[in-house]
Design goal:
The complex is a heterodimer of chains A (875) and B (264). By secondary structure, chain A is an alpha/beta fold. Chain A contains 42 helices and nine strands. Chain B has 13 helices and no strands.
Amino acid sequence: MSKCAVRVINVNKSFTTMAETDDGGLLKRRKKITKHILKDVNLDIKKGEVFGIIGRNGSGKSTTLNMISKIMKPDSGTIEINGKVASILELGMGFHNDLTGRENIYIKGTMYGLTRKQLDARLDNIVDYADIGEYIDLPMRVYSSGMRSRVAFSIMISVDADIIILDEVLATGDLAFNKKSRTHFSNLKLEGKTIILVAHSMSTMREMCDRVAWLDNGVIREVGPSNVVCGHYETELAESIDILTELAESGVPASQNTLGCMYRDGHRVEKDMGKAKYWFEEAAKRNYDIAKVNLADIIVTDEALENIDKAMDLYMSAAGRGNREARTKLSRLLTNESRDISMEVVNDFKELLSSANPQLYYEYADLILKTAWNNEGQREAFLWFEKASDYGHATAMYQIALMYRDGTGISQSDSEYINWLKKAARCGHAYSQLMLGNAYRDGIKVDHDIEEAFIWYKMAADNNNLDAIYQVAMMYRKGTGIHESREESDYWLKLYAQHGLNRQINILADSYANNKNGVFDIEKGKKWYAVNAEHGYGDSKYRLGNILNSSEDMDERLMASSILDEASKNENFQSTVQLFNLHALGEAEKSNLEDTISRLDELIEKGNMWSANTVGNIFADAKILEFDGTKSIEYLEKAAESNIVPAVYRLGIIYRDGILVEADYSESLKWFKKGALLKHVPSAISIVNMYLSGVVNQAALDYALKEIEKICRTGNTHAIRTLGEYYLSGKVVEQNFQKAIYWYSVGSNLGDIESRYQLGLIYRDGKGVEKSFEEALKWFSLSAKQGDFRSIIAIIRMYGSNHVDKNSFDSAFSQLIGIAKGGHRGAMRDLGNILYEGKLVSKDLNKSKIWFERAAMAGCNYSREKLESLKKLEE
Amino acid sequence: MAFRDAVKGKLSELYSFRHMYYSLVQRSLFGKYRNSALGFLWNFLTPAISILLFYIVFENFMGQNIDNYWAYLCVGMFPFQFMNQNLIGGASNITSNGGMVKKIYFPREILSLSQVTYTFIIFLISYGIVISLMIATGIFPTGGLLALPIIILTMFLFSLGTIMLTSSISVYSRDFEYLIIAFSRVLFWVTPIFYLAEARAGILYTIIWFNPLTYFVEGFHHAVCWGTMPSTGLLMGCVLISIVVFVIGALVFFKLKDGFAERI
């Protein structure tokens, strides 16, 4: 495993100082005060990781860094350091005001261990980086504080060290300089340097750090992946009564609202409706909509009908500013709608939830949110949104993000808001992509980063979000966040102008062509695609080409290839690929084949490496073109150089299995290693398997394991599961149940079904721990709720051997029914068995037969045989 | 063995920070008076003015007993200035560089070394001028020149010891710093700079020879002013004092330096 760069072992540190106690006499007595700053602190910082330390002011962060920098010595304990350390703890120290910037650079540079020669070589770089122009030759006394910091920072950039320590210095300079610095340190990480970082901006810590330690009053409270620990820290801060009260009393509406919620729910404080109402009122006075809604909710549910008017006013005020919840509640109040109906809907809807359908989870959550009059409902809604998002439901993730932003049903957390927004965006939710673009552009709740903003806007624009399209167009025009390009700008602006109409045309064409919305008319579909296509929609041309291609008419098929040809000329990637397919079927002009290939080559020149990947695969699969091993590898390597993971992985496989070329294990290993470095778990696993079959050595295995562990630390459940399994089975590494449990626990915390199931097994069978059916049940229940069939069966079996209570059995059993209803063959079969044997539930031969029948229809042999034997019994 | 390794380790660390040492010396030499019109010259002007003052005042009283009173004054004044700077002025060496000490890691001895080096360079230049002047006016004797390097070296070692001693203690006790400043007034009067050591009698004589600075100053008087070899006793005195003070100073410094950062 990787060596430690820094180990802090049982370190304690106290500071003593004399404080004056004013007794009123002539001689002031001085009292000795000792503050125990660090208490038994232990840290393991690995080589090459970015390690963060977070905590309130005064928790001991700077002291810890001072000691690692050897500026102070611990009272007890040791600090082991492997490598050269460069500490950037303050900017502006050591400068002599009368000397010029240039001279000061030399002086300060030597303090950081740079030699004269090195400074001579790097001086120009430093001066450029600091970007203070002619001031460099003026005495430093005329510099602004920002300039001083920048000069200091630039010197730091040139420092050579294995371990770099940063104590709250990343917020230096203006926005541009800020971004430059953060990028520089992120790049350092790629060079394998270890970075220890303290910053107060949570978003910086989350984005830059791999692991984070939470120092609370001199004690290490938690160490783990940055997302996790930062999340816990923020939650604690957001819910810290002292901080909240302080902020609320100084008039911050968000804090007042949160405080109100806590008093209302009795969360961390004693329930006190009076105080809750007080704080909601304070926040409402300051026009905080959510508080208005909360206050109105209380009035409606708790108070007499006379005050309903006040509640309505509050709702109207919030509704007028766009609060959706307020609008719903207001409309129901105004129309006196019976609450009973909505309760019926909710109850009936609940029954649908036993099937593991994420869309239903989402709808249910939405329903509750609309109908809930109190906070419990909001919390339930949150839980169901979470379940839906486990299945990748993007809109649910978006809703969760909003709930984190507003503190609805969960404690408010800005960084979790951004976190979930990103999850939704990565799953294709256009509006989330837009909001992220806005956040990065304005630097709200994240570090201002105009290039990052562009990336998100572009995603949203590709997803046809109008606002994003406009933003992208403007950014291309002005050259902000992306290179200036009149062409691109015009393209996007045109899109924006036409979009209104084109979107509906697209819907129309889709409906006609794909038999959606109750119409089907391929001719009309073609017509409307053609209209869009004329406006230059590459995507519509592609679809039109596809339709024509599958038509019976020969002429139309020929048209197809020319349309696709056009589209691909305009760099529509999919069209180009489709053209290839046509060539394969002999449906396109052979002479155009070279054209098409050269077009793909062009795309590759322009940097579209996915094209390289496709071409490589095409040559390898030999479906379209003749098999050409060399060319395939050539293209795949191009894609792989640009870090396109599928290409890297494929190359690994090609060389390993000797498909297109002679098997070359070392070449294969090289590619798999690269894949592992790119965080591709299957690549790392392939290395492990190669080791097991004896074609690579121990060093390769160690490398693979190290990378897998690194990937685990980023929260990748696939990697975590794999590592857990390795430790459990003992086939790859020495069997180690403690480590297996550790990793499976991490995976479970991240919601991984497999990890929870394995933990259940471990506790049930007592592998490396004391047998505990309680623990096993706990884990099995979690994964069972997520719909894991094996966990459900495990619970049921444990009931059979009397190791769990009836309640758990009941819930597992109903889940089994749910899955079986959803068509799970194994579930149907097992259900049949249980009903047949009548040991766990009352025997019911009829129902049992029904389930066996269904299972048999789905292809289960066991069920078929069972049915036959049942029939024989009856006879 | 462990001791030898520790010393070796220390020396190699100091060597690796030599560039910082050079820079600090440069900073003192060129930075200190950068903003003033006379700049670098002030390093010499201050003692020169003192010498002029004393000459004018005491020439009337002492000039009869001592030939070339101005030379006698100069020969004694500059070494005293050097040693005084590192004993008294040196007390604030660490505290005045508090920012660096608190925020950057480097061997703290570098500060002591660079300060002594800086003052030493000033001393050498000043002394060079004085000797040139003496040669020019024909009063330069050569009899005791062999002793000169020994006295200069031991004086350097002595000053290194004193600065390490005073600067480290000052960090822990501000009172000490103020005490030392008061003490410096006395030091000037008990060193035979503007009077002859032999001319004092009784208890004054004992006090004068209790003062370690006297040994070095008398050594310079012999070597440069009178052209005689200083007695073995005097030389032994110089060597012993310098070694003892250096060892004590270094030990105290090493013991105290770990606590510098938190006390400044």
